[in-house]
Design a protein that fits this description.
The structure is a single chain. By secondary structure, the protein is α+β, with helices and mostly antiparallel strands. It has 2 domains: 3-53 and 146-193, Hypothetical protein yqbg, CATH 1.10.3230; 56-141, no CATH class. The chain has 5 helices and 8 strands, in the order βααβββββββααα. The protein has helices at 16-23, 31-49, 152-166, 169-176, 184-190; strands at 3-7, 56-62, 76-78, 84-93, 99-101, 107-110, 116-119, 135-141. Strand 6 (107-110) and strand 7 form a beta hairpin. It is elongated, with a radius of gyration of 19 Å. The model has no long low-confidence stretch (mean pLDDT 91).
Length: 198
């Protein structure tokens, strides 16, 4: 079930000036490093929670609708990145590789949490003819276009990750690669935002 980012966020949830104030860094010599750490921290928070913090667009490519994301009646599927803003397109592919755009009247998007694509009765979620990669869903997710739209605990988690990496060169390299355990304070901030699987 590959996900590909088609339009990245236009900004970071935490500004460079806010990060420098948090770090008490008054000089400009390390602005580039701090900017990289901000981007890495945002990516880590998004990876840990399944959230898109700033508005961004995605393409979800599927072989079939995943049973663990389907509703009991099979008429709704939760999307993998949240909070959902909108669904732009749903396509299926036939055995020869030709795509068919599904009429938007046959489905609706349920924005927010968890964010679902729902078939409008009497229609069903479309089924592909192609065995691999036969479904594509283009959608937009995020809290909004600016850092002010992002909940404060998530912004604080980013600042704490940046401070942790900034204070230690080895942790900075690890943060850039998205490796290593989370500091306890960051883990506690992210815990309520993680998707619970039953």
């Amino acid at each position: 079930m590959p996900l590909s980012l088609t339009a990245p966020p236009a900004a970071e949830p935490v500004s460079l000036s806010d990060a420098k104030a948090w770090l008490r860094a008054g000089h400009a010599e390390e602005d580039s490093l701090i900017g990289e750490l901000l981007a890495s921290a945002r990516a880590r928070v998004e990876s840990e929670t399944g959230l898109a913090l700033i508005t961004q667009s995605w393409r979800w490519t599927l072989d079939a609708w995943p049973s663990r994301r389907l509703s009991a009646c099979g008429q709704a599927v939760s999307l993998p990145v949240r909070p959902l803003i909108s669904v732009q397109a749903v396509r299926t592919y036939d055995a020869e590789g030709a795509s068919t755009a599904i009429d938007p009247a046959e489905y609706r998007a349920e924005p927010g949490e968890p964010g679902r694509l729902i078939a409008v009765l009497p229609f069903n979620l479309p089924q592909p003819e192609r065995a691999a990669g036969g479904i594509e869903v283009d959608f937009t997710a995020g809290f909004g276009g600016t850092g002010d739209d992002v909940p404060a605990p998530l912004r604080e988690a980013i600042l704490r990750l940046v401070a942790d990496a900034y204070s230690n060169v080895e942790r900075a390299e690890s943060a850039r690669r998205g490796e290593g355990g989370l500091p306890d304070a960051v883990d506690a901030l992210l815990r309520p935002w993680r998707r619970v699987r039953l």
